[in-house]
Design a protein that fits this description.
By secondary structure, the chain is an alpha/beta fold. The protein has 20 helices and 18 strands. It binds pyridoxal-5'-phosphate (PLP).
């Protein structure tokens, strides 16, 4: 058959659309998507023919390719995946997953009109933040609260409100970078505040702050070191002393806590993270923290503290540009409500649950996954359960190791890199890591529902 004859056998776009396959696609998918897929597949077959190949170009054969292409084109780009890295607050994987209560509250708020900025008792316009203020005050002991998009915005807004064109004193040991795009000196610059560094990388003393005070000082800022730790010959000024100094000179003290832990995790064997309540109780004027780190809620930036100062922030027009939407507000409110019962919060807020679950529980999950894997892929890989360490992630608790258990896979017929890639590209995607030529799937961050389907995902990766 000549190339011309082969080309003439290719069905037209119209023929494809009018076929039973085409009618079915048009019923379930957007016309634009179907057209694009049909054109793409016909085009690729044409190219194959021009290169001398003889592909099967019956409608039946093309329909498989078109089907796959339509599915790919209509799939969401933002998609769920299985986090087998063991990093609980994984910024690249969406940080905290939300509690069922938070999800329910988002859904009901999204489905109907709400009193987002409406005061039901007076029938007048209300404030966006008043619905969440009371619960935050009750839980943290702060006088007032306002919420913005994320903690970076919270810090920026505070600096802009109180220190534009004035000096902010910060210890050199706290000029941190968090996740690349948030660097204290740069945020300071963007806000128009002037950074006044004091002390050294490893040691800063109270007189360092005191000596830097001048007529231009607007704020004393304390930043949680988050993702790094200075160890050895070190000293930092505790927030209590900074607050005392601030009171003496009438300079407000802001503590950027980063994580925003609401429960004293020492009871659960996790040391070294100050609670929001503690920092508020020291008398710090403003405390800021993230909604989606240790709090376990949605992306948000909490600004809590003295009523007078919060009122000033509420008047800053930049607040409008950083305001949070109703769905975030709904999920934040639900998450905070869960903290009214600490025991329940530990069980129902996924971030807290994953961080504090017992080694026994993690081990059982890892064993369950390993045994279902043995049924599915024995002969393809050496399967084991190993002790390992997970991380909190999200710049939280960097120096704390969380003993964990992981399923290890040593593939026999393909490379470990190939296995990692196939799992990552699979459906659903599984994100695992490689350690010493072995694929490691940490059971800490694998949810129970996911554990049930994981063996299937791994099997698909091997039979590709
Ligand atoms: C994480 C963090 C931030 C940034 O918070 P986002 O919610 O990611 O914007 C700022 N400061 C500290 C100390 C942090 O740990």
């Amino acid at each position: 058959m000549t190339i011309q004859e082969k080309l003439s056998r290719l069905p037209s776009v119209d023929e494809c659309l009018k076929s039973p396959f085409g009618r079915k696609w048009l019923q379930s998918f957007a016309r634009k998507t179907v057209l694009r897929a049909v054109r793409e597949i016909i085009d690729s077959k044409r190219k194959e023919i021009l290169h001398g190949a003889s592909p099967d170009v019956t409608l039946e054969a093309l329909s498989h390719n078109i089907d796959a292409s339509i599915k790919k084109l209509s799939a969401y780009k933002l998609r769920p995946l299985i986090n087998a890295t063991g990093i609980v607050i994984h910024t690249n994987l969406g940080r905290s997953i939300l509690s069922e209560r938070a999800i329910d509250h988002i859904i009901e708020t999204a489905r109907s009109y709400s009193n987002l900025e409406y005061d039901i008792s007076s029938g007048r316009r209300g404030k966006r933040y008043s619905n969440i203020k009371d619960i935050i005050r009750e839980l943290t002991g702060a006088e007032d609260a306002v919420v913005v998009n994320n903690n970076a915005a919270a810090v920026l807004l505070c600096l802009e409100t109180f220190a534009k064109g004035k000096e902010v004193i910060v210890s050199r040991g706290e000029l941190v970078e968090i996740g690349g795009s948030f660097r204290i000196p740069e945020v300071m610059k963007a806000s128009g505040a002037i950074l006044r560094e004091v002390g050294t990388t490893n040691k800063t003393h109270l007189p360092d702050y005191e000596n830097a005070l001048c007529g231009d000082t607007a704020l004393l800022l304390k930043v949680h070191q988050s993702n790094y730790k200075v160890i050895g010959f070190t000293e930092e000024v505790p927030i209590e002393k900074l607050v005392k100094l601030g009171k003496e000179y009438k300079i407000p003290v802001i503590a950027d806590l980063g994580s925003g832990c609401m429960i004293d995790l020492e009871k659960y064997g996790v040391y070294g993270e100050p609670t929001v309540q503690h920092v508020v109780s020291t008398g710090a004027d403003i405390v800021t923290f993230s909604g989606d780190k240790l709090l376990g809620g949605p992306q948000a930036g909490l600004i809590i503290g003295k009523e007078k100062l919060i009122a000033k922030i509420q008047k800053n027009p930049m607040l409008r540009a950083m305001r949070i939407d109703k769905m975030t507000l709904a999920s934040l409110e639900a998450t905070f409500m869960q903290y009214l019962d600490e025991e329940k919060a530990m069980k129902e807020i996924p971030t807290l649950k994953m961080l504090t679950q017992s080694e026994g529980e993690i081990k059982r999950r890892a064993k369950r996954i390993a045994s279902s894997l043995r049924k599915e892929i024995s002969g393809h890989a050496e399967i084991g359960v190993i002790a390992d360490e997970s991380q909190a992630g999200g710049g939280s608790l960097p120096e704390i190791s969380f003993p964990t258990f992981a399923v290890s896979l040593k593939p026999l017929k393909i490379s470990v890199n190939e296995l990692e890639k196939r799992l990552r590209l699979g459906e659903p995607h599984v994100i695992a890591r490689i350690k010493d030529d072995t694929l490691i799937m940490d059971a800490r961050t694998i949810q129970d529902e996911e554990a049930k389907i994981l063996a299937g995902c791994v099997k698909n990766a091997f039979v590709l």
